[in-house]
Design goal:
The protein is an alpha/beta fold and 262 residues long. It folds into 2 domains: 125 residues, Response regulator (Rossmann fold); 107 residues, Arc Repressor Mutant, subunit A (Orthogonal Bundle), CATH 1.10.10.10. The chain is built from 8 helices and 12 strands. The strands form 3 sheets. A 5-stranded parallel sheet has the order 2-1-3-4-5, sandwiched between helices. It has a 4-stranded antiparallel sheet with strand order 6-7-8-9, with helices on one face. Helix 7 packs across helix 8. It is globular.
């Protein structure tokens, strides 16, 4: 004989309903990919991972959409696109004052392509073979990393450091009022160094600035230093094209760099 279950006593308190956790904020991304099937597949899967995706078949459509005032948080580009390739679209975005983080999602996984993407100002480079879950994870890391600068009032107004002037709103650097022509990544490094004028910034901190905290790349445990040195060399050369006597970026061997001498 089954034991009867007593009714809930009327005098007993009603069990409290545990409120559901607030859903994570959906991240707005623009995705440019000319392969329609792949574009729809990735867009759908990113949607399942908490992203609001607006997709385009080419860069012309993206530029028109941005020109209408759209405000995505991250742009994802394929390398091979009709009309204008992704790698050529990136500097065009920068010239139009669009300083949004750009991630390449491409099947061209060779180091030469990755290096060129970073040289042009990309924030990340993801091989299509890695899959959407990896892409989604890296997009979230980027979205979290760019929140703090956006909320920091010091990064909104023009920043002056001697003969250097930085305009964070458009990611442009000026030396004696001449635009240095830095990529987005180069601009971020110069801003990091100048904001810590007189103090050395470690190789690791510079590398995290190039990508995001914890990004792993390079050959060996400290392989990232080669990438940092190459980027610093390009930055110096751009300043020296304007001022042959430029010497503001000082190196402390095996540690890092600083802006200005003490």
């Amino acid at each position: 004989m089954k034991e009867s279950v007593p009714a809930w006593p009327s005098s007993s308190p009603v069990p409290r309903t545990v409120p559901e956790a607030e859903p994570a904020k959906r991240i707005r991304v623009a995705f440019v990919e000319d392969d329609e099937d792949y574009r729809e597949s990735v867009s759908g899967e990113l949607g399942d991972h908490g992203f609001d995706v607006t997709s385009f078949a080419d860069g012309v459509e993206l530029m028109a959409w941005l020109g209408e005032g759209a405000d995505p948080e991250i742009i994802i580009l394929d390398w091979s696109l009709p009309s204008i390739s992704g790698i050529d679209l990136l500097p065009r975005l920068r010239r139009n004052g669009i300083a949004l983080p750009v991630v390449f999602l491409t099947g061209r996984s060779q180091p030469a392509y990755e290096k060129l993407a970073f040289d042009r100002g990309a924030l990340d480079f993801v091989d299509k073979a890695r899959g959407v879950p990896i892409l989604a994870h890296r997009l979230r890391l980027i979205a979290e990393a760019v929140k703090k600068p956006a909320e920091d009032p010091d990064l909104v107004d023009n920043f002056h450091c001697g003969r250097l002037m930085l305009k964070p709103k458009v990611s442009r650097a000026f030396w004696d009022d001449v635009d240095v022509g830095l990529t987005l990544t180069e601009f971020k490094i110069v801003h990091l160094l100048a904001a810590n004028v007189g103090s050395y910034v470690t190789y690791r901190s510079v590398y995290d600035c190039m990508h995001y905290v914890g990004f792993i790349a390079g050959s060996g445990e400290n392989g990232y230093r080669t990438n940092v040195r190459s980027c610093i060399k390009r930055i110096r050369n751009k300043f020296r094209a304007i001022d042959p006597e430029f010497s503001e970026i000082d190196n402390y061997q095996s540690f890092g760099y600083r802006w200005g001498k003490v």
